[in-house]
Write a structure and sequence with these properties.
Blueprint: E1 6-10, E2 13-16, E3 19-22, E4 36-41, E5 49-54, E6 59-65, E7 68-73, E8 78-83, E9 88-92, E10 97-101, E11 108-113, E12 122-123, H1 126-135
Antiparallel strand pairs: 1-9, 2-3, 4-11, 5-10, 5-12, 6-9, 6-11, 7-8, 7-10
Length: about 140
């Protein structure tokens, strides 16, 4: 059985004349319990964030304001996903190389994770990532 490495997500949204409300619940709308949350804003259009993979962490990325793109690299396949709706996101499993870029001026990229921050589980060298991800297939 193939493990899901990334998946587009849509979150329940509710709205009326007062505005909109989007609900995101850990273990329900995202496939893990949320242990950490952070957000990226104020990045210029030419800035590239991420450029790493994680051995333990899973992520959900949501542009709650503005737009950005995410380059997803599994070591076998590369795809670019546009995040441009506050009720949609992308799930990224462990061992996926990610690069976020092309931020709109008003972009706020919310990131949810199943793990607390641990710098030791980050792979910041692309060649090391390719080595490790391809070792798992052997």
């Amino acid at each position: 059985m193939e493990t899901i490495q990334y998946k587009k997500l849509k979150f329940p949204q509710h709205g009326d004349s007062r505005g909109h409300l989007v609900v995101v619940e850990g273990g329900k709308d995202v496939p893990f319990d949320i242990k950490r949350m952070f957000y990226i804003y104020g990045s210029d259009k030419g800035v590239v964030r991420g450029r790493h993979a994680n051995r333990k962490s899973e992520f959900v990325l949501i542009n709650v304001k503005g737009t950005s793109k995410v380059k997803i690299d599994t070591g076998k396949k590369v795809e670019v996903v546009s995040l441009d709706h506050p009720h949609e996101g992308i799930y990224l499993s462990r061992m996926v190389w990610k690069e976020m870029y092309d931020f709109s001026e008003d972009a706020v990229l919310l990131v949810l994770s199943n793990e607390h921050y641990d710098p030791e589980e980050y792979i910041r060298d692309y060649e090391q990532f390719l080595y490790e991800v391809n070792q798992k297939d052997v």
